[in-house]
Design brief:
Helices cover 43% and strands 9% of the residues. It has 5 helices and 2 strands, in the order H-H-H-E-E-H-H. The longest helix has 21 residues, at 106-126. InterPro entries: DNA/RNA_pol_sf (IPR043502).
Length: 164
């Protein structure tokens, strides 16, 4: 299998992208540690990355920083392995008897855990000024807050949520 190097690009590297920190990497690994998932196409289980973090962390941070600077992912992180899981109580010959999942490389999933935290930090620090009703990518706001807001609006207008 190909080595996970960042795809060559004629574009210049962006100097204003902060390096991926040890804290970001460790936070992503902690979230990975909580999951016991099957490995992706590279065959490396997430637990292996957790156990080898001390040795691999500098290389992972360098790779993640390069991805951010170049705005590209290693092509192998875009590949997955399709697995069909059989649902209980459904006929074997029925397509609806299976739930498809795609297994991805754990290194790519680690990187994907770093991005949302950076987006939220950027939006909090530098904007743009988000509408008061924007709930995604905002610290201290959740799906529950959005639902509560919708219910409040519906009640204010004599809406349909009175029976909930």
């Amino acid at each position: 299998m190909a080595s996970p190097s960042v795809t060559d690009s004629p574009e210049e590297e962006s100097p204003d992208v902060p390096e991926v920190t040890q804290a970001e990497t460790r936070a992503a690994v902690l979230r990975l540690r909580a999951k016991n998932t099957a490995p992706g196409p590279d065959g490396v289980p997430g637990r292996s990355l957790v156990l080898a973090l001390k040795e691999l962390e500098p290389q992972l941070r360098g790779l993640f920083t390069s991805c951010l600077e170049q705005g590209q992912l290693p092509s192998v992180w875009k590949e997955g392995r399709l697995v069909l899981l059989r649902k209980e109580g459904r006929p074997v010959d029925s397509p609806s008897a299976y739930r498809p999942i795609v297994l991805l490389d754990e290194a790519g999933k680690l990187f994907e855990r770093i991005i949302p935290d950076r987006l939220v930090s950027h939006l909090c620090r530098e904007g743009p000024d988000l509408d008061e009703n924007q709930f995604g990518f905002r610290r201290g706001r959740s799906t529950i807050d959005a639902i509560t807001r919708v219910r409040a609006l519906a009640e204010e207008t004599g809406g349909v949520f009175r029976h909930l």
